[in-house]
Structures are given as structure tokens and as C-alpha cells.
Amino acid sequence: MNVTLRVWRQANGRAKGKMAIYRVNDISEDMSFLEMLDVLNERLTLQGDDPIAFDSDCREGICGMCGLVINGVAHGPQQTTTCQLHMRSFSDGDVIDVEPWRADPFPVIKDLVVDRSAFDRIIQAGGYISAPTGTAPDAHATPVPKRDADRAFDAATCISCGACVAACPNGSAMLFTAAKITHLGLLPQGQPERYSRVVGMVAQHDAEGFGGCTNIGECTAVCPKAIPFETISRLNRDLISALTHGGSHWPRAAPKGETEVDEED
Amino acid sequence: MASKPPDVHVTNSELLDSLDADSFYVEGADIADTKAPKVPIDRRWEERRFRARLVNPANRRKLSVIIVGTGLAGSSAAATLGEAGYNVTCFCYQDSPRRAHSIAAQGGINAAKNYRNDGDSVYRLFYDTVKGGDFRARESNVYRLAEVSVEIIDQCVAQGVPFAREYGGLLDNRSFGGVQVSRTFYARGQTGQQLLIGAYQALERQIAAGTVEMNTRHEMLELIVVDGRARGVVIRDMVTGAIETHFADAVVLATGGYSNVFFLSTNAMGCNVTATWRAYRKGAYFANPCFTQIHPTCIPVSGDYQSKLTLMSESLRNDGRIWVPKSGEDKRDPREIPEQDRDYYLERLYPSFGNLVPRDIASRAAKNVCDEGRGVGPGGLGVYLDFAAAIARLGRPTVEARYGNLFQIYAQITGDDPYQTPMRIYPAVHYTMGGLWVDYDLASSIPGLYVTGEANFSDHGANRLGASALMQGLADGYFVLPNTISDYLADGPFPQVDQSHPAVTEAVEAVRARINTLLSVNGSRTVDSFHRELGRLIWDYCGMERSEEGLRKALTRIRELKKEYWSDVRVLGTNEELNQALERAGRVADFFELGELMCIDALVRRESCGGHFRVESQTPDGEALRNDAEFAYVSAWEFGGDDRRPILHKEPLVYEYVEMKQRSYK
After folding, report:
1. Residues B321, B359, B464, B645: which is the catalytic one?
2. Bridge partners of B171?
């Protein structure tokens, strides 16, 4: 098949970017989208043109390194990572727009490569359980109800790709932040830091320049791991509890009366 | 360290026509001592921890450690050493430490918890690992790995790793290839990601606490050895191209394996050998480079453009049945082939282990049936992995709960629905047991250079059992290295390294010179086209089957291709920018050199063991035939110099606890 690409080219973070047009002929529909870009880059190199920079690593949908806005949609037409998108999702003759994640906290480094280190800093602000090596009790000391474990796992599947931010009209990273709050907040091991965690992470989220959540839901529509929207409600409940009960940065147990009012799944 | 024998000055070009394998290398002194305490095996680790010198907490902040790589082995070490109070500087080539390739491990992590009451124990995990490694792993290290495995699960649960649980709230286990107990802990099909997130979060906590300085998008290009000690690294900032030097009292390489020498492998695109290879060239021994693991259950190759292969966790073999049509002529839809016309060849050949035989055996069996012309799918390079019986027995919801995300990956890539039609699978390179040689302390042959995880060679012998890579990475990083490195650091802090020290300027100049050469060749072929050709050579001649003739052919061709590379590669752009072709070019240059050493190692080891199958050494029924009398040793290679022969040091392997016998999974 043959396609035409309109690709965002930008030499570096300070340069002005523009869309450039490339014809890519004779490609197989079994290629992944990134393999199609590999083929284009091989051809560009042989022509003496600078290949297009884009991030990818595992190419099996788990490392979260890849991420392109394809025809205006983060990760393209399938709800998956860009590396798992195949050319069979397109038709011969298509014109395809390829852009980087667009959000102020994700500055462009080159072409389609952006800097997502803001996510690491949100994790630094509380996205962990303090368990120094060697201090752990036996793994069976605290049983975890299967339902909680499964739901914590669902949230923990987040791969930090940033599609939620790219899709959000507000440039909010609430789904990413809420996934971590939910993962750790549903487990007994995560309780001691539950409220300091949410306060710290949300403060960092805002300090990085991500926008607020206004319940639009674009994030879940593109999330390759289908992180549930309700994680954001959970984050908000924890945040309100932490703030109204004066919880700021010292660890505390769940405020009285704030029992697990779990939404049915 | 062994002294070099006198005759190391024969250039490789003189050797090209030689027919004698011995002319490819020279032999150095044996490695006599691996520093394991000389007490009964179940007391060695305790003894070592007791004898290792400690560093007073107040002095730790004066001591610095560089850690390269942030997969399970690197993140866990960085978090633990940072927590202990050392000054840690960490590097990774990805944009976040959480993306290291440990994240892609699917199946699980072994631990001798015996939660199933099915006869498991530390001793049995030790025994299984030594046997599974085909008696080419070191007993002391493996025993310690089995001991520490128990603590890993506790640690991970405390960090919030959401392992699979049963309705009673306790942890679930499953069995894995090559063993008969259920000791594998798992988190659906993404155990690697969950364990790595646990280690990554612990690491980020230390970054916030200021004990670890993290540098993402930074790649190590050279090791700096000053006065016989590893004291630093030369790093390229992949965004600006700046060539930086960093110094410390010790350096830890946790940079993973080298499967990408094959071009097509299940490794991530960026995985490479450069860090360990550069250390090898500076004097660290490289052990058993030819011990690579071909994983039996991967999605078959679909075309020339393919950039990588995708693994399907071998946990699928718990419930999936592997078969091919009895006749190569049978081209019916697999669902229409009746039972009597199917050959469940693993169940037929290995009745007691069936579909759960170790990886090397399952892979070669698949190759054999395809070589017989009975393979399925495009090019005949595939076998069926069929879940129809499991779905009938367990119901679709159970199968979905166990393997749902794997089925999804498969459907996404192939466009087929594995709930309806059998998967097609074929072996692919997945893991490298070889790596930098380390002693019991995980110290390399360069003082102050430590190596953890897949980057070292230590624990899996000639074949790794499923769910043991995650175990080893975390054992090394959380529990082993932090206890042994203090013994070395107790002599520090070492004198500050001067920027103008000849060892520093030499290393920096070497990096600049390589980069400049790669950018100035401006030839006619891309980096990938060379890499693909190299990979094909290694796959054909140093893959599932190796022969004297094939390896010689490969060595000749690799050397020719390497020359062509340096005179005909095309890398555009400059150093002073994000330049992904330049990054790849440097990595591929090192893969050429590694590929050569792999073939020499495979040539010298004239026996079959584990993943290393030499056609000249097999039993009458085609099984691997070990030669313990001549080859019960670790091959530790010392760099001899450019165009000089490498030097082989043998570390004899002694089995005091597990009786050496030919593996049988029949």
C-alpha cells in the first residue's frame, strides 16, 4: 500500500517546527506503524535526508516509550500503544498526520520526541510505598482481598506513556496521577502514606503545569491500558479527605467515616 | 588476575585461513578462586555477609557509586544503596528509569516459599536451577539465589506489587517450564512491569530524598579505569551530544543482555552490549558469550521489515498444547485437523514433562519439526499452540483471567483470535546467560567494577529456567550487591580522579574518535542494514544449532562485514543533537566485536549443553550430549587487544551437592 505522511519536524526544543510531507510507497499492511516509519527513515537516510526522530523501545506495548498523535488522536485509531498499531488500520492512499504529544509540560526535544520527565517528578512527590529493603514482613502476613488486589492491579497497569495528557483539552495528567493513587491506595500496604501521597502528587502535578480535570474523559478514550475514569474520583475523594481533615504531609490513617464506599464495577 | 601468556601478538588476519579452532584464541591461567566462603553451601552467604567489612553509616555519604542501567538489577541496587546512605549516580538511555526492558517480562518470578506445600524448598530451587542450567552454573551463587528468593517476594509485596491473589487473599502461584512444583509468583502477564514499577518507585523515593542523582537519556560509552580500579564512566548526553565524565568509588553495570546482536530478538530496540563490551575491552572478563537462550514461544516473523520479535510468555505452555500436523502435506485449517492427524510432539517425546520441558529443548524440538517440513504458517516457520482443550476444560473466563493480555497482544499483532484458532509460535532469541564474569561478590575482574542482573553471567549456566531472570535481577540488586560492595567501599574513599589523568583523557578521546569516524564515513548503507545482516549470520550459525563448519564460516564473514561497516556505513547529522542513527551505529559497532567472540566461544566449546547445541555432540536420539570431562568450566575471556587473539581463562566448575548427570526430561 501507499500512504502520504504529514510529519511534524522540529530540529530541537528552541527551533520552530513545521509539518513536512512524505510519500511512503510499497509498504505492507502487516507492518506496525513504527516499522513503516523505520522504512521511511531508511529511505530518507539513503537519500541524504535527516531521518525522523521518534521514541520507541520495547515495541510490544508495555514500556510506554512510544507515543504519537496520529490524525489528531493520541496513539492513533486503535486504543493501543503506537507500537501496536498496524498499517492494516489504514487504507491505501490515506494521508496521515503525525505529531508529537502536545502539552506544555512535555516540551519537544526533536521532531516527535518529547520530554516526559514531569511524570517521574510526580512519582517522586509520593507515588511509592516506603519499604526500605530488608524491612518487609512475610508476604502472607497481610492477606489482600482479591477484589482489591485485582482493582489495584488494573490501575497499576498504567505504562506512563502520556497519551492521557496529549488527549486532554486541559493538558491534565489526572488519569496518570489517579492511577498511582488508586494502585497504592487500594492496598493495605499503601494506607499509612495514603493521604500524604495524594496531597504531594497533586501539588507536583499542578506545579509541573498540567491542567485541571474537568471530567471530559478524552483520557480514558485513548488510554492503551484502559485505566478506569473512576480512578480520578477516587483521587478526588482522597484529596478532599486529606485536605478537610487537615492532612498535609504527615502520615495518618483513613479519616473516620471515610470507609471504602466503592463504586460497583 | 592471571598473567598474560607471551604469545598474544598474532593478528586476526593471519588467522583467517587457519583451520584450527585453537588458533582463534590463546589460553591463560585458570581462575582458581571465586571467593565463595569455604563452608557448607547453606552457610556460605551468611558467612560472607559476616566477613564482609561494613561501612559506618556516617561514612557512607562520603562514598560514591555509579550505577548504569535501571532495570530490575539497577533500580533495586540504586534504591537500596541510596537508602543505605551512599551517594549514588544513576544512568539510563531511556527517558525514564521505569522503561528499562525488565518491564517486558511477562510470566513471573520464582521463589522457594513453598506456599503450595508441594515439596518445594530452597534446596529444590537450587537443584532445579543447577540442573536446568545443564551443570554450567556455579553452585555457590545458585544456592544463594534460591535462599534470597524468599525475601524478594516479601520485599515486593511490601512495596505494593499487585501479585495475583486467590479469593482468600493469599498469593497465587503457578508452575513454569522445567520444574514440577508451583513456585512462580505472577501479576497477570506483566510481572516484569509490576516488579520494575516497585523498584522504580523505591528509586524515585531516593531521588526525592537526594541520595540518588538520576540521569535519563544518558548512555555509557566507556569505562574509566585508574590505577587498576574502575573509577568512572564516559557518558553521552543523548539530547545535547555532550560527552561527560563521571567519577565514583565504584561502578556497577546493570545494563542487561546482548540478544540484540541477533538484530531480531525479543529485546527492546535500544538494548545493547556497549557498556559491558567497553568494560571487557578495559580488562573485565566476558564469560560464556555463546550461552544464549532461544525462547520457544514467540510470534513468528512476518516480513523483512520486521524490527523486533514479540514473546508470548511460556506460562502459556501450562495450558496450551503444542503440535504440528503429522504430515507436512496437511494444509487444512488447524481446527479441521482431527486429533489422529496431529503430532503433539513434546508430549510424545517427553511424556513426563510434556509441554513444560525447558526452553532449550522446546525450542530445538520446534526447529526440528519445521526442518522436517511440518512447520505451519508463512515460510513453514511456526508450530501451533492450542488452547481448545484448556478452554473446554477450564472455561473461557479462566483462560481469559490467566492469559487475557497475552491473547490480546497476539490478536493485535497477527490479526488472529487465539480463542478461536490456535496461536502460531516459533522460537526467538530472548535472553543471554553469558555476560561479564563475576565472582561470588558480583565483582568483575576489574577491582571496583560490579555487574548485576542479566549483564553478568553468574546464575543460569547454559540455560535459564523460566521466571528466574526477574528473581536474579532483584536478588542481585536488593540483597547481594548491597551486602558485598561495602567490603570494597570500606577501603574508600579513593583519591579524587584528576580530569587530566591519562586514563581519563584516553577514554574521552576514544569516545570522540569513534563518534567522529562513524559520522564521517558517509558510505552507502544504513546502520540497520548492516545490523540485519550481522544478526542473520549469528542466527544461522550461532543460534539454535552450531557446527564447526558454520562457526568458521560466520567468523570469516563477520570480520569481512565489520570492515565493510567501518568503510561503508552512512550516519547523517552531527553529534551535538539527538541523533538516533548515531546511537545505533555505536551499538552495532560493538555487536560486531561481540559476535566474533560469541562464535569463537561456541567453536571452542565442542560439546552440547543447554542452549548451546553443537551438532557434533549429540546422543543417538538427537539430544544434547555434554562433555563434562573436558568442558565443565566457565569460559572467561580476556580482551587481548584489537586484532589480537582473546585469552581464555577457565573457571573449573565443581559440583559438590548436585550430582552431574545428563539432563533427561523424558
Report:
1. B359
2. B165
State the CATH architecture for A117-131+140-244: Orthogonal Bundle (1.10)
Class of domain A3-110: alpha beta
Strand-pair category, B321-325 with B383-386: antiparallel
Domain boundaries, chain A: 3-110, 117-131+140-244
The number of C-beta contacts closer than 8 angstroms across A and B is 215
The pLDDT of residue A247 is 54
The shares of helix, strand and coil residues in chain B, as percent rounded to the nearest 5, are 40, 15, 40
Question: pLDDT by residue (tens digit) across B127-154?
Answer: 999 999 999 999 999 999 999 999 999 9
Per CATH, the number for B296-430 is 3.90.700.10
Whole-prediction pTM value? 0.94
Residues of A in contact with B188 (CB under 8 A): 153
Q: Which chain B residues are within 8 Å of A200, Cβ to Cβ? A: none
Residue A220's pLDDT is what?
Answer: 97
Kindly give the parts of chain A with pLDDT less than 50.
248-265
CB-based contact, B450 to chain A, within 8 Å: no
Cβ-Cβ contacts under 8 Å for A139 (sequence gap 6 or more): B113, B153, B154, B156, B157, B171
B546 is catalytic: no
Q: Give the SS3 label for residue B156.
A: helix
Cross-sheet strand order for the sheet of B286-287: B26-27, B647-652, B633-638, B286-287, B435-436
Q: Out of A97-111, B405-419, B481-495, pick the least confident.
A: B405-419
- Let me know if the fold of B14-290+433-666 is the same as that of B296-430: no
- Extents of the domains making up chain B: 14-290+433-666, 296-430
Confidence check: pLDDT of B2 > 90? no
- Residue-wise pLDDT for B193-237, tens only, equals 999 999 999 999 999 999 999 999 999 999 999 999 999 999 999
Please tell me the distance from the alpha carbon of residue B14 to that of residue B33, in angstroms, as a whole number: 35
User: Does the ipTM surpass 0.90?
Assistant: yes
Topology (CATH) of B14-290+433-666: FAD/NAD(P)-binding domain (3.50.50)
User: Is B577 near chain A, with CB under 8 Å?
Assistant: yes
- How close, in Å, is residue A57 to chain B by CA atoms? 5
